[in-house]
Design brief:
By secondary structure, this protein is α/β, with parallel strands linked by helices. It is 44% helix and 12% strand. Helix 11 runs parallel beside helix 14.
Length: 399
């Protein structure tokens, strides 16, 4: 009878017993784990104390890594804020005070169109957000050297093209002009790669620096990086381009000589001064000759700056085909801004708001003597004809 009573414990009593056993086992396992960890730490400390050379080597490696990191950060900071351009496109050094002031400035683009740079490019809170490219979500993807470059030309419409292309989900582009193949080549390809945004598989990394097209060393340097690089050149009526170039310089340096006096070596004889960069850039055939020594014509796409205004979707279609991308950017992405006189995006990349280029785009040109304009048209005509033949496309600048 007693045995029967013991064997018939009520369910709550058995449950309490089981919980007690589980808690006891957990406690014993914790003590065992703590004991093992203590032994391991003691062994590691002993080994370290017996190996001073290894500890010294580790400290030296850490110091070397820190120095490399500081050097990279210094180079990136200098690129963002340590130099400026004069009116003729030449880089000049600026004082530290001016550099700090300029580093706090941002582009004249809406805030929503900019993305903060990756953390490893942040040197201090003064870093300019103009470095912003598109960063893949949650830090996914990797930084790659660009597979496509917008290499020219200055005042041709390169900024507009880049902003339009960034709408495409398969294009990632750095916002600032790296000037790697003309001014910063000495910093090396790894420095250049670090400036690029992260991309996922199947996405294209791009950057634009218009001065590459007129830089003699640029074709060889880009070819050394990759012979498969696709090149895009936005070209525009060279006379209009030269006036636009002068207008930009005039806005920064109001005391420069007149357009007419800069155009001619001798106004009486009508000899054009081809050493002036505003004139020289527009001799497209001459510059293209240099590029064709390193790249075949089928790797270079010429975009019409005029058609980029009158038919942006059409020109963007050609660019998307050239890059091997699906035609996603179409007429539905654009509207024509009557005030500025060129198309704007209905929705900019990373934003739900309309976006036009900043106030530095679409400046009013000064009145130029019609005789000077005609002299320039006569000067450029033979170069334009050769350029049409080389590219197989008639741009209509001489109509």
């Amino acid at each position: 009878m007693a045995f029967s009573r013991i064997s018939k414990l009520d369910p709550p009593s058995r449950g309490i017993f089981r919980k007690a056993v589980v808690m006891l086992c957990s406690l014993l396992a914790s003590f065992l784990l703590l004991h093992l960890l203590t032994d391991r730490c003691t062994t590691t400390a002993t080994a370290t104390s017996n190996s001073p050379a290894r500890a010294s080597s580790s400290r030296a490696a850490g110091l070397f890594q820190d120095l490399n990191s500081l050097r990279s950060k210094r180079l990136v900071y200098e690129w963002t804020a340590g130099s400026e351009l004069n009116g003729y496109g030449t880089a000049v050094r600026a004082s530290p005070v001016l550099a700090d002031e300029r580093a706090t400035q941002v582009l004249e683009l809406p805030e929503e169109s900019l993305v903060l740079p990756p953390p490893d490019l942040v040197v201090s809170r003064r870093v300019s957000p103009r470095f912003a490219g598109k960063v893949s979500p949650l830090g996914e993807g990797s930084k790659k050297l660009p597979q496509a470059l917008i290499i020219g030309v200055k005042k041709g419409g390169t900024r507009a093209l880049l902003e339009f292309l960034r709408v495409h989900p398969d294009i990632r582009a750095v916002g600032a002009e790296p000037h790697f193949f003309d001014r910063n080549y000495h910093n090396g390809l790894e420095w250049y790669r670090e400036l690029m945004p992260k991309t996922l598989e199947g996405q294209i990394t791009m950057e634009k620096t218009p001065s590459y097209f007129v830089t003699r060393e640029a074709p060889a340097r880009i070819s050394a990086m990759s012979r498969d690089t696709k090149l895009i050149v936005v070209v525009r009526d060279p006379v209009t381009r030269a006036i636009s170039d002068y207008t930009q310089t005039l806005s920064k340096k109001p005391d420069i000589p007149s357009f007419e006096s800069l155009t001619f070596k001798n106004r009486t004889t009508g000899l054009i001064d081809t050493s002036w960069s505003a004139i020289q850039i527009g001799i497209y055939a001459k510059h293209l000759d240099n590029w064709l020594q390193y790249f075949p014509m089928d790797q270079i796409l010429f975009v019409s700056g005029e058609r980029l205004i009158s038919d942006p979707a059409g020109e963007l279609g050609r660019v998307q085909d050239f890059l091997g991308l699906k035609r996603i950017i179409t007429d539905k992405h654009f509207y024509f801004n009557q005030t500025k006189g060129f198309p704007c995006l209905k929705k900019a990349e990373g934003s739900s708001k309309p976006h036009c280029l900043g106030k530095t785009k679409g400046r009013t040109h000064p009145n130029i003597d019609p005789e000077v304009v005609q002299r320039l048209r006569d000067f450029y005509r033979p170069f334009n004809m050769k350029f049409y033949q080389m590219t197989g496309r008639f741009f209509g600048w001489d109509d």
